[in-house]
Design goal:
By secondary structure, the chain is mostly helical. It has two domains: 1-35, no CATH class; 36-87, High-Potential Iron-Sulfur Protein, Chain A. It contains one helix and two strands; from the N terminus they run αββ. A two-stranded antiparallel sheet has the order 1-2. It is globular and about 30 Å long. Bound molecules: iron/sulfur cluster (SF4). Residues 26-87 form the High potential iron-sulfur proteins family profile domain. Keywords: 4Fe-4S, Electron transport, Iron, Iron-sulfur, Metal-binding, Transport. This is High potential iron-sulfur proteins family profile domain-containing protein. InterPro entries: High_potential_FeS_prot, HIPIP_sf, TAT_signal. GO terms for molecular function: 4 iron, 4 sulfur cluster binding; electron transfer activity; metal ion binding.
Amino acid sequence: MSKHCESGQVSRRTVLLGAAGALPLVALGVTGAHAGKLSQASVNYQKEPHEGKHCSQCNFYIAPSSCKQVDGTIYPNGYCTLFVAKG
Ligand code: SF4
């Protein structure tokens, strides 16, 4: 009986510690998705290339459909005013 209670206390403490440890992760998850990224509208993102330049040539492009700087779905043929050619 006492053994059962001990293990119950240990597991409850583990759960509490786990919950406390998860809180910062949850906070990061909530803010991390859009942290530091700009809206497509604010950088005049368009789904077509501009003067031969497009996202798949850009330093910020993350294949297949993301960008380090701009939020949302980014097409390889898209373009925005932050375009920087891959070096
Ligand atoms: S052109 Fe703009 S949206 Fe496209 S990858 Fe570069 S920074 Fe991102």
